[in-house]
Specification:
Elements lengths: L18 H9 L6 E2 L5 E4 H8 L4 H8 L5 E3 H6 L16 E4 H9 L7 H17 L24 H73 L13 H11 L4 H17 L6 H8 L3 H13 L3 E6 L5 E5 L3
Antiparallel strand pairs: 1-2, 2-4, 3-4, 5-6
Helix pairs in contact: 1-7, 6-7, 8-9, 9-10, 9-11, 10-11
Length: about 325
């Protein structure tokens, strides 16, 4: 394709079409670009292949881009004494392609978004074949600054493709913004729900604390009532019976079989005679227990205030009486 007529200062180059718009029209996306001091452009092959739908970038380069139009980033920058750009995943071993390599990849692409650009490229070839050259029309309004490059009108097919792609991106941005708005609204609703749950938990905790305090006060009041209530006293006006004595003893202590045997023997004597003067051997003979065990049972009855000692008889036997206090 012949270059259109130029009116720049000597030794300076300019581009008839802004390369960013050119690449955007070809791929439908903005792609990273590295511009060399001589004005040549190189693009990461992985970026181009990703936007054009090539899943295997190495195979796509091998199938559609000659060696002359692809290089390693280290080789391209080293030829000009430049260092590898930092950031944005630029690596020394990154495969890069020239502008012609990008066009070759686009021509091999089957995505519908590449069709306007390929149609314009076909029109350029047809025009060159028919007229021998292809000339871009100059824009109606030219830059007024001294030495500014000439502005050319964007080819209609490329301009329409850029407009459609920009509209699609705007729609995508609007949809993304709407989705973000919904997400923020949902997050706010979740936060509000969590706040309400927290308030409910706090109210429940306060109610539980109030209930616990009330129960504690009730317990304290009951304790005070128990302390204020006079202790029951034995009705000394009513003479005891064997049954009442045994019933009282059951309440006073945990009665085992041997203790109960001794209690059944001595209770009638204490009720009828008012005293127990029988030797331990006599009680042991009547209960079938040993003297030592009889003594232990009597000691247990004394410990729980069922009986109390009242000295000893003339023969030295202990004397016991009922404890009715």
């Amino acid at each position: 394709m012949n270059e259109p007529s130029k009116r720049p200062e000597a030794g300076k180059r300019h581009e008839a079409i802004d390369v960013s718009d050119f690449v955007y029209a070809a791929t439908g996306h903005r792609i990273r670009r590295l511009t060399m001091p001589d004005g040549s452009h190189w693009f990461p092959a992985v970026d181009v292949c990703r936007q054009l739908g090539h899943t295997n970038s190495r195979q796509a380069l091998a199938d559609h881009v000659p060696d002359d139009h692809r290089e390693l980033l280290e080789t391209v920058t080293g030829a000009y004494g430049l260092s590898v750009p930092a950031g944005r995943e630029w690596r020394r071993d990154l495969n890069v392609i020239s502008l012609q390599g990008l066009i070759l990849l686009v021509n091999a692409c089957t995505k519908p978004s590449c069709a306007p650009f390929k149609q314009w490229a076909a029109e350029v070839i047809e025009t060159v074949q028919r007229e021998g050259s292809y000339t871009l029309e100059e824009a109606e309004v030219q830059p007024s600054e001294p030495g500014a490059p000439i502005a050319y009108a964007m080819p209609e097919q490329v301009a329409e493709a850029i407009v459609r792609l920009e509209e699609r991106n705007l729609q995508a941005d609007e949809q993304f913004a709407a989705a973000q708005h919904k997400s923020i609204a949902l997050q706010e609703a979740i936060v509000e729900s969590q706040r309400e749950m927290l308030e409910t938990q706090r109210a429940t905790l306060a109610a539980q604390q109030a209930m616990a305090l009330a129960m504690e006060r009730i317990a304290d009041r009951l304790d005070s009532l128990v302390l204020e209530r006079p202790a029951p006293t034995a009705d000394l006006s009513t003479p005891p019976t064997t049954e009442s004595v045994l019933a009282d003893w059951r309440q006073r202590l945990s009665v085992t079989e041997d203790v109960w045997t001794v209690a059944v023997v001595i209770a009638p004597v204490l009720v009828e005679e008012g005293q127990l003067r029988q030797p331990l051997e006599s009680i042991a003979a009547r209960t079938g227990l040993t003297v030592h065990r009889v003594n232990e049972c009597l000691r247990l009855l004394r410990k729980h205030a069922c009986i109390r000692s009242q000295g000893a008889s003339e023969d030295g036997a202990p004397v016991y009486v009922l404890n009715r206090s």
